[in-house]
Amino acid sequence: MRALVYHGPGNKSWDQVPDPTILHSTDAVVRVDTTTLCGTDLHILKGDVPAVTDGRILGHEAVGTVTEVGPAVTSIRVGDRVLVSCVSACGRCRYCREGQYGQCLGGGGWILGHTIDGTQAELVRVPFADTSTYLLPAGLDDESALMLSDILPTAYEVGVVNGGIRPGDTVAVVGAGPIGLAAVLAARLFSPAHIVAIDLVDARLDAAKQFGADVTINPSREDPAEQLATLTGGLGVDVAIEAVGTPGTFETCTRLVRPGGRVANVGVHGTPATLHLEDLWSRNVTITTGLVDTWSTPTLLKLVAAGQLDAKRFVTHRFALADIVSAYDTFSRAADTAALKVVLTGTPA
Amino acid sequence: MRALVYHGPGNKSWDQVPDPTILHSTDAVVRVDTTTLCGTDLHILKGDVPAVTDGRILGHEAVGTVTEVGPAVTSIRVGDRVLVSCVSACGRCRYCREGQYGQCLGGGGWILGHTIDGTQAELVRVPFADTSTYLLPAGLDDESALMLSDILPTAYEVGVVNGGIRPGDTVAVVGAGPIGLAAVLAARLFSPAHIVAIDLVDARLDAAKQFGADVTINPSREDPAEQLATLTGGLGVDVAIEAVGTPGTFETCTRLVRPGGRVANVGVHGTPATLHLEDLWSRNVTITTGLVDTWSTPTLLKLVAAGQLDAKRFVTHRFALADIVSAYDTFSRAADTAALKVVLTGTPA
Amino acid sequence: MRALVYHGPGNKSWDQVPDPTILHSTDAVVRVDTTTLCGTDLHILKGDVPAVTDGRILGHEAVGTVTEVGPAVTSIRVGDRVLVSCVSACGRCRYCREGQYGQCLGGGGWILGHTIDGTQAELVRVPFADTSTYLLPAGLDDESALMLSDILPTAYEVGVVNGGIRPGDTVAVVGAGPIGLAAVLAARLFSPAHIVAIDLVDARLDAAKQFGADVTINPSREDPAEQLATLTGGLGVDVAIEAVGTPGTFETCTRLVRPGGRVANVGVHGTPATLHLEDLWSRNVTITTGLVDTWSTPTLLKLVAAGQLDAKRFVTHRFALADIVSAYDTFSRAADTAALKVVLTGTPA
Amino acid sequence: MRALVYHGPGNKSWDQVPDPTILHSTDAVVRVDTTTLCGTDLHILKGDVPAVTDGRILGHEAVGTVTEVGPAVTSIRVGDRVLVSCVSACGRCRYCREGQYGQCLGGGGWILGHTIDGTQAELVRVPFADTSTYLLPAGLDDESALMLSDILPTAYEVGVVNGGIRPGDTVAVVGAGPIGLAAVLAARLFSPAHIVAIDLVDARLDAAKQFGADVTINPSREDPAEQLATLTGGLGVDVAIEAVGTPGTFETCTRLVRPGGRVANVGVHGTPATLHLEDLWSRNVTITTGLVDTWSTPTLLKLVAAGQLDAKRFVTHRFALADIVSAYDTFSRAADTAALKVVLTGTPA
């Protein structure tokens, strides 16, 4: 088969490679009908993720069709259309039993396109298939489902649920890239009174308005703390969601939140931040971090299938799977191309 | 009356001052039968709390007898024996309505011995008396009740409840001074499997064992991370409670906690800490801070009255109220005197 | 002033009565700008509520203007426009401290138009005014605010929050009268996948669709259990809300709910129901009951002010306050008049 | 091998039967080192559980040693000492993913000694072995572990956790048989102020005192409602746990609970109860039911291993496994023999 293979920092190619096979009785092999690119893939290509080594097939998101299952797989069958989750779950360890699949101790977690070959390929082996794939209801289109591999459960679990958003809250989302926009969209599910998007790029703030933010702030022109004080009677926001991954944006979140409020960190950080405990110690603040666990995938599938969540709106560009190198180019130049999610479609079998 | 009056950094005296009177219809005046000293009082005396100005009567903990009530007070009467909470609550603002009295917007919060005169006196005016004092059940001794003014609700709310301790958990308490010991005692209420006390002073670790810790670690001799890895199958503790108030001990807590665990900060901090988001972002960690709200006072009163919580064991030294200057001396030399809580008793009326 | 006075079962009149005055320091007197009628008022008029005696002014919902405050009232002033809650809260007892104002032990709870004179009058005395009225933001119209006196907090707290509705759930609302429609509207705040309205009257089911139900079932034509089995893969609904108040509809709810689901009773019951524990004991079902506590009033005010909740849509009929007897006639013949909420407007001062 | 085989109502015998074998790749076969009898087994023998048919080996509790595992089993190995849970979990269905194993849709739930052969045998086949057995820590004795097959998780999950017991609560446990005593013991883990045991048999009340109840009431001599009113300031208990399974005891629980309180039903019911909604509708009461899910088994194992929970105290009688018919006789005459848990020990291999 063909696959997008990582060849060390800065290098990747669409290579001919051997087809994957069943290695364990709980594996499935899935033909990739649709896959997409993630900001994490760009980090890998920069060499920022040392666990990814030369020869690895990238990608951790897919919708596909089951072509083979191991003898212990009981939930899916050959021919089933499934969502492949970015997180694999052994289903047996203490974390999997508590729905924290991202912390799996039994060989799962984020492994696809990381420590084992991934989904940017014509076929992918999915370990622990019973607990790492989701049967798709008839009538649910591939592109909508694909958004549930990673971006929407991440925003929902790590941003919105960790943030504890409640009806009537005022929520600030710092960063209006794809994951910030997903947080805006997912935040609406709990009916906050206001969603405030904060970003330095006006085009992103415009997108945030379309995704459901009712207030936008560009810190290059306005002081977020001042604007939010006006909106919240001087108290600060109930929930601040960090969706960038820099010390500065994290510290902004801790400064914008009201006493008793919550900061939910979604961004991927490479360096420490300063935690102003000299101010925060007495303010009853809760700060959360998290890798997506994908416990919410069934919930989100129900919402998308019922038409309550417009997952597809993230898709800005579409390519044939064979053109994935061009797709990477478009996605990596998001500032110019306004790419949010770039979808790759395989050739029908 | 006589009272302990602050006269600027390093200066205090047991002065003759005017008796307090009812200023607002919701005030009460309480004769102080028993009061105590808090580490915060020592901070004030060093000049670390600029809101406290020359002439202020110190103290925010007391058990006493009501001598006068304003016309709007309905819950307590002259002659009632009451607990005076360290936090006053207007009972009307959004925070008070949610039980977060420490964040009161209506004139309450920590005001006694801070922005208004306090309890280290023969009489004290208590604002918002209906929601800031607690009627004591017959048979509950003054000293036990006094421990519910501040130290026990602080440890219970900010350490144990914020920490979300559940049966079977392994809990680390970093710092075994009075507040850390209170956290050990209060943690037992939720039946963790193990409570690990960590401190540099062996005498404090011995005290922690007596308060309920089953494991103690002195970092000057043993590496806490290593010891806890052994105890927790390499994962780290479920809950870490910071009870010192330094960047180093806070960072230790974030290093000791397992993926999915919680860090509850109780310590009072004067400087920022480093938050290692480059490690923590993916570990599903929750960090909480908080000033005590005293919503738990009725709960703790029930536990003490039922004999389920031995509050009195904190009392190591006793003085007559008039000897409060000597009491301060004993309390400020805790390393030598092994003082935990020093109780001052007034002359019966 | 003039007021609607109850004169025993079946009798009421628009009488001249003395103006209310401040009786306690925590009272306010409010000029009624807008009030409404509740199904409970009809029960009272039938003689079903023995605590209401001859001479009582009815009504427990109002928006008005403060004309006088007692000396201990600090949150509102003469001239303020306020919402009068159907539940009064002493703000001091154990229930009020936990936000369960409906169970107030200090003289509050549902007292207006019940054990003291109510709001269907030109003026009303409101006890515990600081904790029983809510200042209205500028720009919020009276009719929208009025829906927050009773019907919306009841549906939100007792139906939706007690029901624990989560995104993606399937929710059945049994009964599509005013309170059932309010439950449909409020349920949307937590983004269920499906809201199923069940009622014997097609006109009510049509209304339910307009309020946000996406499925309707008329049990005179279809078996709800069968329909819901199809919708839920044979399991039953996640949450069933009882909004009628009869044994039969309650038992329907317990039959429709899936294992692990919740039944939230909102209906007012006059007789016992049968609880089929021989089936339910092993099904992990949670059943809740409740009088409204109105802890959610600030939340709902924020949602209405932000345009996230269309409270006004309940208003089907409008009368001058002096025509309240005609309004009662229209409201009591709801089957013919399709009345949901009938609004009475006083003469501007 | 030999096994206790059900032969229709009233008939059972210790028969020679074929050894169990691996049927599915996720099965294990376990040699039974220790097993016990449950009240449910007596119900089966009366013919009350029609799903149990002639020829079925009874028993759903065991501690044993793994003798064979299917090819997909990864968590346990031949020779491991394991706890066999009364509930089997497929680990894949929506209920298993949420920890509600008792409601498993994938072939699990309570099946051992019910729909498939059980543990009162020399060997037992355990389906879904990875998620239905628990590796025992060295040093944990068989008898203590055996109490975690059913009785302790049932009391903990269905009684104590569903009841939402919090520190300082007053808890009533209605029924002081084995499951009621387990509820008393498990309730202590959340530090209530008072645990009140209610039973008609004084010997059981004496046992309840030994298990941790501080108040006992025999309704043949005292009115529980009156006694509890005294203890709770007239309000009623915070939590009532039903541990009998009759309409009368359930109705007692709903009568004893305070406004805002919780009733947790643990008893197995064969007939409906009356739910007095005419009183309860306005009292903010929560009622829960449940089959044990055994999500708490790891928690309880940690508590027992740490010496925080004395599981073994339930064991009143011990027999060799081959003498199981005598053991049934002793257990079925509990009123005379004071039997709580009767332990059967197999012959070491």
Can you describe what's shown?
4 copies of one chain form a homotetramer. With 349 residues, the first copy, chain A, is an alpha/beta fold. Chain A has 2 domains: 2-150 and 293-345, Alpha-Beta Complex (Quinone Oxidoreductase, Chain A, domain 1); 153-288, NAD(P)-binding Rossmann-like Domain (Rossmann fold). Helices cover 28% and strands 24% of the residues of chain A. Chain A has 13 helices and 16 strands. In chain A, strands 3, 4, 5, 6, 7, 15 and 16 form a 7-stranded mixed beta sheet that branches. A 6-stranded parallel beta sheet of chain A has the order 10-9-8-11-12-14, sandwiched between helices. In chain A, strands 1-2 form a two-stranded antiparallel sheet. In chain A, strand 1 (2-6) and strand 2 (12-16) form a beta hairpin. In chain A, helix 5 (151-161) crosses helix 6. The longest helix of chain A has 11 residues, at 151-161. Chains in contact: A-B, A-C, A-D, B-C, B-D, C-D. Strand 14 of chain A pairs antiparallel with strand 14 (286-288) of chain B, so a sheet runs across the interface.
